[in-house]
Design brief:
mainly alpha
Length: 120
């Protein structure tokens, strides 16, 4: 899926690098949610609960991904009209998925909470 932040943004503004990393993390988490057949609402709830990502950020990134990948989402929404996370994974599995995805960021000293606060 295409990225959401242009590469030159990070050279002009040092804060853009952390913002870019944060948006890429959110994008990656959304892609993982899609692999678990979550709909947007379920993804927003999971990322808010397990990764402490503000719903507005998840919704914004999700909408941008939909714009960039219209064909994929049209097909995805037809195959997955109800979402229903309960049918595909448990809350424990969702928590483990979020922890696996965010681990490299925590090891680099990046805090999800700090990054989301910077977005406000």
């Amino acid at each position: 899926m295409p990225g959401l932040v242009a590469a030159d943004d990070t050279t002009k503004n040092p804060d853009a690098s952390s913002s870019s990393s944060y948006l890429l993390l959110v994008q990656h988490l959304i892609e993982k949610c899609l692999m678990f057949n979550m709909d947007q609402r379920e993804c927003v709830e999971a990322l808010s609960k397990h990764a402490n990502i503000q719903p507005l950020i998840t919704i914004t990134v999700w909408n941008e991904l939909e714009k960039e990948n219209r064909e994929f989402f049209s097909s995805y929404n037809l195959k997955n009209p109800n979402g229903k996370i309960e049918e595909y994974c448990s809350q424990a599995a969702a928590q483990q998925m979020v922890e696996e995805v965010t681990a490299p960021f925590r090891h680099k000293g990046l805090s999800l909470q700090d990054s989301s606060d910077a977005q406000n």
